[in-house]
What we know:
By secondary structure, the chain is α+β, with helices and mostly antiparallel strands. It has helices spanning 28-33, 78-93, 102-114, 163-169, 235-241; strands spanning 3-9, 13-15, 22-23, 43-45, 57-58, 61-67, 71-75, 135-136, 140-141, 147-149, 155-159, 171-178, 182-192, 212-221, 225-233, 246-257, 262-272.
Amino acid sequence: xxxxxxxxxxxxxxxxxxxxxxxxxxxxxxxxxxxxxxxxxxxxxxxxxxxxxxxxxxxxxxxxxxxxxxxxxxxxxxxxxxxxxxxxxxxxxxxxxxxxxxxxxxxxxxxxxxxxxxxxxxxxxxxxxxxxxxxxxxxxxxxxxxxxxxxxxxxxxxxxxxxxxxxxxxxxxxxxxxxxxxxxxxxxxxxxxxxxxxxxxxxxxxxxxxxxxxxxxxxxxxxxxxxxxxxxxxxxxxxxxxxxxxxxxxxxxxxxxxxxxxxxxxxxxxxxx
Length: 273
């Protein structure tokens, strides 16, 4: 996937000896780093195909579902962090890079942890109804057997739907991968391309080339893996994308691991009919 601009921000942390794939409970200092149990935390919506449109509105459509077993959509915190996320992701899409402030990271990561298992040996804070534990892996073993985690997470975004499908169904599916537990915030826009040539004897349809904004999405990952998010685009966007041969998509992402290492990327994709 081509990346036009990448800005990596890392925080060097030393933690107790940790082998790959071992569940880990944070110390009090690490709990403070993660923000602890913050008030008014949101939820992690993980049900396959669950309707999310009422929770996460967007100018170009709504998020209608998420599938996958590694986490879910973080909801219920948009009122606290939505403005900062929009502004920061807008800067990333524009090619200027961007990082999230500590209070926003605390809310997002605190929500992830609060919706993860609090069983002994895990970093979760949630109650009996919370999901599975966060399993940490990777890092570099340094002197004295400590693990140094100074690497920001890596994420990729892939569009699974073709333009013809979007025009027919009004839905666009995105596959979002992350290589370790944490949070990914992403936003994107689409510019319709060349209009499909009309059949003989018919007039070529007029298509708006206005930029289409895809709603902001925030995903929480309990472990490395991928999730598929379904976006129901607006009727205007559905008509435009269904009548063009191609389109250009700009995706801005900010990926954060549970140790607050950040990576922001601006990725350009080309959508086909």
